[in-house]
Each structure stands twice: as structure tokens, then as C-alpha cells.
Design brief:
Belongs to the GMC oxidoreductase family. This protein is α/β, with parallel strands linked by helices. It contains 18 helices and 19 strands. The strands form 4 sheets. Strands 1, 2, 3, 7, 8, 9, 10 and 19 form an 8-stranded mixed sheet that branches. Strands 5-6-13-12 form a 4-stranded antiparallel sheet. Strands 14-15-11-18 form a 4-stranded antiparallel sheet. β2, α1 and β3 form a beta-alpha-beta unit.
């Protein structure tokens, strides 16, 4: 059931109360219902974005140019950030769970297999086909295994999870969704548990307290952290105290382009376009350094893939790319084509010569029209949803995009300010930092990749700046904010983390967190699918605990 208010809700909910109806919250609710556990899903927004409600997440930045705007990083509405994410679904790698002293200051309290066994169900919940993340290229092999070219990334067939799960959210007697229900306070009991939560509409009306038996925060990394920091203000020793791990080790990914690549193999060139895999969704191959290469060379986990040239620069003289730029430059339409964070990275703040783009389009109108038509058909008419744009060219020359691990750093953090939102909840200040060592790793990965391309004869690499400027070039592009990893670390003890291996708070027995914020490392993968897999794992744990308690009471 989806309700627009709190009418008819009792003073206490004995099932699992979930705060935040984004990708993880919806997935957790659906999985708990499948396991016969009643769920109350609280969402601060409605079915559509409301500027006043969205403004509740405004934050301050120590360095604004290193973090995405909060209108991109947070979405206060049903479906959360799945309303405008890129829908990329990638699994973590075994190396992300390995001890890497001197490279990554983090330790997982669980093994890779503890997460991996839930990825198949996570793929179902995200509607991204089967758990297939490798696709060899027929007829193309190499003895040099320093890098692989068969690693896949997948995309969800439906971008919005509230659409994917519309039927069960609307009809399940076990799921009670309450919109316009912002949680503004977590009440603590004397027994070391959460007693209740304060709920309010965005305008401050309808404020009330609701008793809870089990509380799970799934409000995204930043907003979940904000609620916990506000709770610690009332009880300063919670979550490791002021010097503890809560709000620290803030990570995203190090992304950008510092080089162009030319592929010598026609087979390899064709293999890196988006394609529908037999496992049930659009996929794309990436270049990834092997585990052995990463450990031997002391580099962070990184993926690389060819991309179209910068679309904002009309000097590419491509009618297709100029059409793409003109469409993306107009925000309301551009947001329908790509995720907003991606759109803003491609649409430069610098003034562009729109007339030159128009001339490019007019000079190749038939080709641009054919490509646009093909894109729209593949994007909107099939079961599988074309996630992006790749335009092969005769020269086989492309930009080389990197998506690299962001190493955990305790000084990369968020904290509460003295400012408050309209409901009285303190606002965040965000100081996301990118260590220069991470940029050095990106440059080293490129050097190793260039050597591999030469050894295999697969292609060549051409840097966009001299060697002495490459680290600075990576640092200049270091900006993120949509992945929100590490802020509520899972760990073996409360000195190193906020939640344990089962995502339960070390300090409050009935408080759990399911979010990318619990991940101790960022790896090269987008974190959403892993967060969903952990939500599946949590659902099983909560169901087992609930039924064990019921059995004990009955006995």
C-alpha cells in the first residue's frame, strides 16, 4: 500500500521500519515482504520531486568544486536517486575485500562470498538480468593477462525501482509505504535500543512520534549519516564518539579522462559498444587490471573504457555528437537521455559556439537523424533499455574514461553545522578529499595499460597533457558525490566502524543501516548493486531473527 500521510498508523510498529524509499530501501522492503516480514517504509518526499522537500537536504561544502550538488546527490522522493541515476549495476571484485596494507586503510568484517551469494537476487531486484559479468570476445585472445577486456558492466532495464516494483509496493499487505513522512529524530530508550522516531511532513505539520521495534536507515549515505550524527549530539558517546568513524572515510570514485586511445583491432573496436547480452540486459565491456597486476604494482582498482570525444567541443565536426550536445545542453530534455551527474560533466560551464554545433548537425543531417532514431528506438521501445551513447568511427580513436577506486581517508568527512533545515534538523558540512596518491595510481594504471596495448598490439595511447601535468590533470577532475561510500563503515568493532557484519549498530541493538555508506572500500564498481545485495543479506538476517524470537516466545 502506498499512502500519502500517516492516517491510520498505530503508535507503535512491530515489524521492520525502513527510513528512505530509494533503491536500497525499496529492495529491502520487497525482500522482507517475500520473507513474510511486515514493513513500514517511510519516505520524506512524494511521487514527484518537490523543491521545498528537496531543500531539506541542502548542505555546505568546504570545497564546492570537489562534490556534486545536493540536488544530484540526494533525491527526496519515492524511488530516491533511481529517478535519475545511470542505472549501472556492477559487482565488487574479490580484491576489494583483500588486505592491502599501505594502499587501502580498511578491513571488511565479512568475506567476498558473503556478498557474492546475494548478487543474483540483487540483479533480480534491480532488473538487470542475470549474474553474468564476463563475456570473452570471440577470436580475440592474448597471453598477456595484465589487463582483461572481457569484464562487463550491466544496466537496469527499468531505471526507476518504484516502477520495477510498482505492483508489490501498491498491493502487498505486508508493505506499508508512507510518503511525505520525514524522519527528523531518533528517540533512544534506557535499554540501549531505539525507542521511537519523530516524523513530520515537509512543512512541519503532522509531527508525531512512532514507536519502532526494528529500525533500518536506507536514506542514502549522506542523509543516513546526518540522522546518526544528530542522534549522537544527544548522546555524545554513541558510534565511537566525536573522534569515532561515523561521518569519516567519505569516498566516491576518481573519474575522468587524461588520454585518448586508438584501437588497431576491428574486432576489439566493435566489442566495446553497448549490446544486449543473452543474460537479459544491456552490457558493455571494460578494460580492468588483473588482481596480480594491482597487488604487484601497488595500484588501486580501476576500470577503463573507450568513450566518444568531448561532445561540447564542436571541433570534432561530428553531426551526431553535436546533436547529442545540443540535446544534453537543454536540461529538461538532457535529463531524459542521461543521468544528471553525467549530463553536467559533458555539458561544459564554459560558453560554447552553439552555431558551430548547429552547422555540424546540418552538414550531416541524414546521419544524425538515423542515429537519433536508432537511439530512441533502442532506448524506449524494447524490454532492454539502451543506457548511453557510443559512436564508432573509422579511425578507431576514442577518449579513454577511467573509473578508479577512491581510497579511504579519515580526514575526508562530513559533520553537522549550527544551521538547520526547515524541520530543525542540523545541516551537513561536507569535506570530501581526494588523496594525491589516488591520482598517482590513476596515472600509473594508464602507463601500465599503454604498455599492455603495445605488447598485445591492440592499440596505442596518447596523453592529453605532458607527464609532469598528469597527476594534476586527474586531481583537477576529481569530483564526486553520488556514491556516498564509507561514512557508516561496517567493521569488527566500534573503534573501527559503526555497524557490525550484520549491519547492526554496535551501540543500539535494534538499529541497522543498509547503504553504500557501510562499505569500507570503494573498488572500481558503482556501489548500488552491492548495497542491494547487502540489503538482501540483511533481510534474511532480520527474518531469521524475527522467526527465532517468535519461536522462543511460543515455546
Amino acid at each position: 500500500m502506498i499512502n500519502d500521510d500517516l492516517d491510520g498508523l498505530d503508535d507503535h510498529f512491530s515489524g521492520v521500519c525502513i527510513v528512505g524509499a530509494g533503491p536500497v530501501g525499496i529492495s529491502l522492503a520487497v525482500e522482507l515482504a517475500r520473507l513474510s516480514v511486515p514493513v513500514l517504509l517511510l519516505e520524506s518526499g512524494g511521487k514527484k520531486r518537490d523543491p521545498e522537500i528537496q531543500a531539506l537536504s541542502q548542505a555546505d561544502f568546504s570545497k564546492a568544486d570537489s562534490h556534486d550538488d545536493m540536488t544530484i546527490a540526494v533525491a527526496r522522493m519515492l524511488g530516491g536517486t533511481s529517478n535519475f541515476w545511470g542505472a549501472r549495476c556492477v559487482i565488487y571484485d574479490p580484491v576489494d575485500f583483500m588486505p592491502r596494507p599501505g594502499l587501502v586503510d580498511a578491513k571488511w568484517p565479512i568475506e567476498y562470498q558473503d556478498v557474492y551469494k546475494h548478487y543474483a537476487r540483487a540483479c533480480e531486484l534491480a532488473d538487470t538480468g542475470q549474474l553474468v559479468y564476463s563475456a570473452p570476445i570471440a577470436g580475440l585472445e592474448t597471453d598477456d593477462k595484465s589487463f582483461s577486456f572481457d569484464s562487463l558492466e550491466r544496466w537496469a532495464n527499468e531505471q526507476k525501482l518504484q516502477v520495477t516494483h510498482r505492483k508489490i509496493l501498491s498491493e502487498s499487505p505486508l508493505i506499508d509505504v508512507r510518503l511525505h513522512s520525514a524522519v527528523t529524530d531518533i528517540g533512544l530508550g534506557d535499554d540501549g535500543k531505539v525507542r521511537d522516531v519523530e516524523i513530520s511532513r515537509a512543512d512541519g505539520s503532522g509531527k508525531r512520534r512512532l514507536g519502532v521495534s526494528t529500525l533500518v536507515l536506507t536514506a542514502g549515505g549522506l542523509e543516513s549519516t546526518r540522522l546518526l550524527l544528530a542522534t549522537r549530539r544527544k548522546s555524545p558517546d554513541l558510534f565511537g564518539g566525536p573522534d569515532g568513524p561515523l561521518g569519516r572515510y567519505y569516498m566516491g570514485h576518481v573519474i575522468g579522462e587524461i588520454a585518448d586511445m586508438t584501437l588497431t583491432s576491428d574486432r576489439l573496436d566493435k566489442a566495446f559498444d553497448f549490446f544486449v547480452h543473452e543474460s537479459g540486459s544491456y552490457v558493455r565491456r571494460r578494460f580492468v587490471p588483473s588482481v596480480e597486476t594491482q597487488l604487484q604494482e601497488g595500484i588501486l582498482n580501476t576500470s577503463l573504457w573507450p568513450v566518444v570525444p568531448p561532445v561540447a567541443d564542436p571541433r570534432h565536426q561530428s553531426s551526431i555528437l553535436s546533436l547529442v550536445y545540443l540535446v544534453m545542453a537543454y536540461g529538461p530534455v538532457g535529463r531524459l537521455i542521461v543521468a544528471e551527474a553525467i549530463r553536467r560533466r559533458h555539458v561544459s560551464d564554459k560558453p560554447q559556439d552553439v552555431l558551430k554545433h548547429v552547422r555540424n548537425v546540418l552538414s550531416g543531417m541524414p546521419e544524425a537523424a538515423r542515429h537519433a532514431s536508432n537511439f530512441l528506438i533502442r532506448r524506449y521501445t524494447g524490454k532492454e533499455r539502451l543506457p548511453g551513447l557510443f559512436v564508432p568511427n573509422k579511425s578507431r580513436r576514442y577518449g579513454l574514461s577511467y573509473h578508479s577506486e577512491h581510497s579511504p581517508d579519515a580526514s575526508s568527512r562530513v559533520w553537522l553545522t549550527d544551521k538547520t533545515d526547515a524541520l530543525g534538523l542540523p545541516r551537513l558540512e561536507i569535506d570530501q578529499r581526494f588523496p594525491e596518491a589516488d591520482a598517482q595510481s590513476v596515472v600509473k594504471v594508464h602507463d601500465l595499460f599503454e604498455k599492455w596495448l603495445h605488447t598485445t598490439g591492440f592499440g596505442t595511447l596518447e596523453y592529453r597533457m605532458p607527464r609532469e601535468d598528469r597527476v594534476a590533470g586527474v586531481m583537477a577532475q576529481a569530483r564526486h558525490g553520488t556514491h556516498q561510500i564509507g561514512l557508516i563503515r561496517m567493521a569488527d568493532n566500534r573503534r573501527e566502524g559503526v555497524v557490525d557484519a550484520n549491519l547492526r549498530s554496535f551501540d543500539l541493538d535494534n538499529l541497522y543501516v543498509a547503504s553504500a555508506a557501510v562499505l569500507p572500500t570503494s573498488g572500481q564498481a558503482n556501489p548500488t548493486l552491492t548495497a542491494i545485495a547487502l540489503a538482501v543479506r540483511l533481510a534474511n538476517h532480520l527474518a531469521e531473527s524475527r522467526f527465532a524470537t517468535q519461536a522462543a516466545v511460543a515455546a
